[in-house]
């Protein structure tokens, strides 16, 4: 293998790594507090959380600290009922 061929091979491997890294970042779900709408009945009343609620809670887990600081979402995310929903869904309560 010549130096030029080695350089091209290294360049292509590096370019592919960057491309795959970008692809993985862009496929992540964005933070959307409205995605937790399926959890509203469980947080606002004594209903147990649904499977959909638990799935959305897990999906939005990286965003929960952001939600706990949002002026509108904060009272709901930090409520005692929300903590019970976290436990029922077997999700850790965010420590921000």
Q: What is the average per-residue confidence, as pLDDT, rounded to a whole number?
A: 77
Can you tell me the CATH architecture of the largest domain?
Orthogonal Bundle
Q: What is the alpha-carbon Rg in Å?
A: 21 Å
Secondary-structure element order, N to C:
HHHHHH
Low-confidence segments: 4-27
In one word, what is the shape?
globular
Terminal CA distance = 53 Å
Helical amount: 55-70%
Number of strands: 0
Total number of helices: 6
Structural class: mainly alpha
Biggest sheet character: none
CATH third-tier fold name of the largest domain: Hydrophobic Seed Protein
CATH-level-4 superfamily name of the largest domain: Plant lipid-transfer and hydrophobic proteins
CATH class of the largest domain: Mainly Alpha
Beta-sheet strand percentage? Answer: under 5%
Domain count:
2
Pfam families: Tryp_alpha_amyl
Keywords: Lipid-binding, Signal, Transport
Organism: Solanum bulbocastanum
GO molecular function: lipid binding
């Amino acid at each position: 293998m010549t130096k030029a061929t080695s350089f091209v091979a290294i360049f292509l491997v590096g370019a592919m790594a960057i491309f795959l890294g970008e692809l993985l970042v862009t496929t992540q779900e964005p933070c959307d507090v409205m995605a937790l709408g399926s959890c509203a009945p469980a947080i606002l009343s004594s209903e147990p959380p649904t499977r959909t609620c638990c799935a959305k809670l897990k999906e939005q887990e990286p965003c929960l600290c952001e939600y706990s600081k949002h002026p509108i979402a904060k009272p709901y995310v930090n409520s005692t009922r929300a903590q019970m929903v976290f436990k029922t869904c077997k999700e850790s309560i965010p420590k921000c």
